[in-house]
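Severity: low
Component: inverse-folding endpoint
Summary: output formatting inconsistent between runs
Steps to reproduce: submit the following structure tokens with default settings.
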């Protein structure tokens, strides 16, 4: 994975809203710790004080899709500089709920932002840091919609993206799957229509093989 053997691994979780990323992030971190890996768990947009304030804007406020893309990458610049890069340099593992694949999927696939612009920002902001492994929680939008509606009925307020149409979610999912096809060595696609325990078993196998 890297020339520097002491560098930690960078693992990202991706998938449409309601796919199960937040459900499984704690389990994944514990599984890694049980195998002796120091783990930093974080999320995007967010992960830093400035990033969390940008998250509030991004998930709550309608805006031009280019503005959204720029703010996502602004939060990411902060996240890489303050959290992700220092953790990897210490030898910690980083487990991140969403990263740049989400920008390709949501702003690119969902909103149609020009891929050349996303690629340029990615080059600028990443500075050579890329995930070693990306777990893509995959399921049809109709299934995630049902889960989100149940969560909403139980009192959870849905954010801007969770309220988007199923057609939007279909474009996001297609963009994620296209990225997974383009980089099969980095991605593991997990069928998230299955019960939580079944998904968990597969995640344990993925982590144990790292
Ligand atoms: N495998 C599953 N089967 C049934 N419901 C699930 C499953 N995984 C997650 N859920 C439920 O679906 C909802 C969305 O899950 P969540 O982990 O918040 O998704 P994400 O973080 O990917 O948006 C939650 O209410 C969660 O309890
Ligand atoms: Mg989540």
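Observed output (run 2 of 3):
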């Amino acid at each position: 994975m890297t020339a520097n053997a002491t560098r930690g691994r960078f693992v990202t979780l991706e998938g449409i809203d309601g796919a199960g990323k937040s459900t499984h992030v704690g389990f994944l971190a514990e599984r890694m710790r049980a195998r002796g890996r120091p783990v930093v768990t974080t999320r995007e947009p967010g992960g830093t004080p400035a990033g969390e304030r940008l998250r509030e804007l991004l998930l709550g406020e309608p805006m031009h899709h280019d503005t959204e893309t720029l703010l996502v990458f602004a939060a990411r610049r902060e996240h890489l500089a303050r959290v992700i890069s220092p953790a990897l340099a210490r030898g910690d593992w980083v487990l991140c709920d969403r990263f740049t694949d989400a920008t390709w999927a949501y702003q690119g696939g969902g909103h149609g932002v020009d891929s050349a612009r996303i690629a340029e920002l990615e080059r600028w902001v990443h500075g050579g840091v890329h995930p070693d492994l990306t777990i893509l929680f995959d399921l049809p939008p109709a299934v995630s919609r049902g889960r989100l509606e149940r969560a909403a009925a139980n009192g959870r307020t849905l954010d801007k993206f969770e309220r988007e149409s199923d057609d939007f979610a279909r474009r996001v999912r297609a963009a994620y799957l296209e990225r997974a096809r383009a980089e099969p060595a980095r991605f593991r696609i997990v069928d998230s229509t299955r019960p939580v325990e079944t998904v968990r078993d597969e995640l344990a196998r993925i982590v144990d093989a790292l």
